[in-house]
Amino acid sequence: MMSVTVNSSMGGVGRWEPNSRGRLQAAALTLFAERGFDQTTTAEIAARAGVTERTFFRHFADKREVLFGGHEELRHRIVAAVAEAPVPAGPLDAVMAGLESAAGMLGQFPRELSWRRQTVIASNPELRERELAKLADYAAAVAAVLRDRGVKDPAAGLAAEVGMTVMRVALERWAGGADGRPLVDVMHDCMSEMSAVTAAARPGYGPSNS
Amino acid sequence: MMSVTVNSSMGGVGRWEPNSRGRLQAAALTLFAERGFDQTTTAEIAARAGVTERTFFRHFADKREVLFGGHEELRHRIVAAVAEAPVPAGPLDAVMAGLESAAGMLGQFPRELSWRRQTVIASNPELRERELAKLADYAAAVAAVLRDRGVKDPAAGLAAEVGMTVMRVALERWAGGADGRPLVDVMHDCMSEMSAVTAAARPGYGPSNS
After folding, report:
1. What average pLDDT score do residues B106-130 get?
2. Confidence check: pLDDT of A11 > 90
3. Cβ contact (<8 Å) for B193 and A93?
4. What domain count does chain B have?
5. Is the pLDDT at A53 greater than 70, yes or no?
6. What is the mean pLDDT of chain A?
7. Given this model, what pLDDT does residue A90 score?
8. Is A185–B199 a contact, with Cβ atoms under 8 angstroms apart?
9. In this structure, is residue A29 part of a structural domain?
């Protein structure tokens, strides 16, 4: 009936297939956007997807998991790619390898559903705090890997944070349209823009004279 | 008895004075660090500070406000300084003006209490999420001001996020010791490090060839 074992760990992020799970994701994100997250029940999501509520719970522990499932896998992919980046790569290049890996997963999710997911999260303080906490966890994990690669602090922490910022901003822009370009390209653009922004700063923020 | 009207909006951040309010902050942060935030009562905080519980509530709405009070003022200072930076200043220079203003306020808080505050927040997921949400709010407000200054997206959002990252990392380093240097210098160092990290990246993250 359902071919969902393969991506059963995938929730709000990552691959999407037009099977029960995929239909449930689409239905949930549409209802969350229409009515608000708190006002949507799992029964309504199941009905909209044309499946039973029992089927919903076969795929998701609760309606939150529609938004946040798959994050462990995403984190794992990012961390693994940073760890495996060629050794001469500088901290930001290693981080970029992690973002490319993330784009390979996140870019498979339908852009419009990604947009709805972000809109729902942005409009609900509790969901927003959870999303920020996830990104902070990714950043901490990436910083730890960078330290293992010999990067000192604060460079390790800063590079990791910059990476997560670029990922989030790129994801927003990609989901919002971005001229239909692939997510990985939007991530590269944002990283270039980040370099340009910091390069254009007044040179040498050394100790102040004050 | 108490001369606290002047800084009654200041809580976990900013100026500190050895009056009732200051003693309550010190007592609360020490108890939070010793026992955990959830395990500490306002009665215990008041007792440790040598004041009545009623005095506690004259200064703070609840024990959370010991950690998060003053954030509105901090946000206002940052935003105002970014808005008032000289017009030729690039986005990151304007953001740096905001950080300097923040350092002027945050750097007056005793370093050791700032360290305890950060430790308590880091060890409590709910407090951590709240702290991240505050920083995200600052970043959004700074990005809006940068747009008013004519900075385009994604540069505006990226510069704002970089600024909040630098502020947070610098605050951690300052509170952790940083060779006893003033907070504003530590912020400048972190901003320099940020520029170095991004400058050392592989040039030209343009569209990928994949």
Report:
1. 93
2. no
3. no
4. 2
5. yes
6. 87
7. 87
8. no
9. yes
B56-64 long-range CB contacts below 8 Å, 24 or more apart?
B56/B24, B58/B2, B59/B4, B59/B8, B59/B20, B59/B21, B59/B24, B60/B11, B60/B24, B63/B28, B63/B32, B63/B37, B64/B127, B64/B130
Let me know whether B114 and B179 are in one domain.
yes
Tens digit of pLDDT for each residue in B139-193?
999 999 999 999 999 999 999 999 999 999 999 999 998 778 999 999 999 999 9
Chain B environment of A92 (Cβ under 8 Å): 197-198, 200-202
Q: Judged by CB atoms within 8 Å, which residues 39-68 of A form the interface with B?
A: none
Residue B24, domain member (yes or no): yes
ipTM confidence: 0.81
- In chain A, the residue whose alpha carbon lies closest to the alpha carbon of B157 is A169
Between chain A and chain B, how many beta carbons pairs sit less than 8 Å apart? 155
State the Cα–Cα distance between residues B117 and A2, nearest whole angstrom.
50
Distance CA B181, CA B26 (A): 22
Query: Min CA distance, B77 vs chain A (Å)?
Result: 18
Contact B82, B98 (CB under 8 A): yes
Asked if B36 and B92 sit in the same domain, the reply is: no
